[in-house]
Amino acid sequence: MKKNYAFKKKSAHNVYLFTIKEYLFKITYDNYHTTAIRLITTNGYFWVVTKTVICMKYLFAVLTILFINICFTSVFAQNIPVYFELGTTQESIQSSAEKVKNALTTDGFKIIGAYNPGNQENLYVICYTRTDLEKIALDFEDRGALGATLKIGLKNEDGTVKVSMLNPIYLFNAYFNKNIEKHEAELQKISGQAIAAASVFGQDIKPFGGELSKEKLHKYHYKMMMPYFKDAEVIAKFSSFNEGIKTIQENLEAGTGNTKKVYELIYNDKKTAVFGVALLNEKDGESHFLPIIGDSHLAAMPYEIILQGTTASTLPGRYRIALNWPELTMGTFMKIMSTPGDIKKTMEKVTQ
User: Fold this and answer.
1) Confidence grade of residue 136 (pLDDT, cut at 50, 70, 90)
2) pLDDT digits (tens, 9 = 90+) for 274-301
3) How far is CA 339 from CA 142, 257, 314, 332, in A?
4) Which pLDDT score, from 0 to 100, does residue 33 have?
């Protein structure tokens, strides 16, 4: 009989992670009493928190009741939130970021980059991935590698650091579209584990930034005549994959176009590479457009270049910005009307 549950203790804190099939329970305890139970379905659609004090010997019974209740009631929301607020802290951004990074690495994720969007000291983004996620992402031929990078944002507001993350399953449904079905169970598990691992500053997870259904994400575009995921913009062609890697790396190292490399993922066997690019031009980069559209969504950054074979491309700003700010009004969008074109021009400079 196939084992469909697992139970392990996180060494850093008095926390247990208990999984039954695709359901992840994160349990915080003090001595012999459970002080909080959080249920996170690994698709990120639903979570439950209870602060009831429960004797540890009754814990399994409580979990069983929760599991049965979930299975037989229609508690799952149909829409997928874009972001989760993971808590707040009075610690510095640097200290907070280190705690998040340590929690992620403890749970098997690897940190691939971090930076201050727009060179703003009060904003910080952590980029991370995991080997199983990379393998799955590469199985999607149409720029699937873009879905291999997960992101967490930290924002300092008057001494309080707010920690947030881009919902992994939102990203997966947008980038892998309806083809997600062949890896959906695995991706749901990765999503839930990413949410649980990053939740180090409190027991409440709050969605924000809007929400979309799976069906809309699979064929997302902001308005009529606006681009889809499949309408990626080709920005350069090279004589070889290695030439493309060398050109992009050298330009990012030189800061061409007021850019900086945040991370890179290179898969030589697949002739695929992804570069996270900081847009640091004060006139048209992140410090210009993020305050207008909302820097609370900073976990959408950095922007990416993907190299597949000899072709470098990037997602259209009118798609990628809208996807990560789905509640953006047309009026606000008009205030950054030049931004999609500015980003494309910058990415072209990086690939020349």
Assistant:
1) very high
2) 999 999 999 999 999 999 999 999 999 9
3) 25, 14, 14, 12
4) 46
Longest CA–CA separation in the chain, Å? 66
Sign of the dihedral through C-alpha 186, 188, 189, 195: positive
- pTM, two decimal places: 0.83
Could you tell me where the beta strands, DSSP code E, fall in the chain?
5-10, 15-20, 23-30, 33-41, 47-50, 54-55, 79-89, 110-115, 123-129, 150-157, 160-166, 206-213, 233-237, 259-267, 272-279, 303-308, 311-314
Q: What pLDDT shows up at residue 205? A: 85
CA distance 200 to 196: 8
Contact (CB, 8 A) for 6 and 63: no
Reduced to 3 states, what is the DSSP secondary structure of residue 324? Answer: helix
Closest CA to 25 of 119, 155, 129, 54: 54
* Four-CA torsion 97, 98, 102, 104, nearest 10 degrees: 20
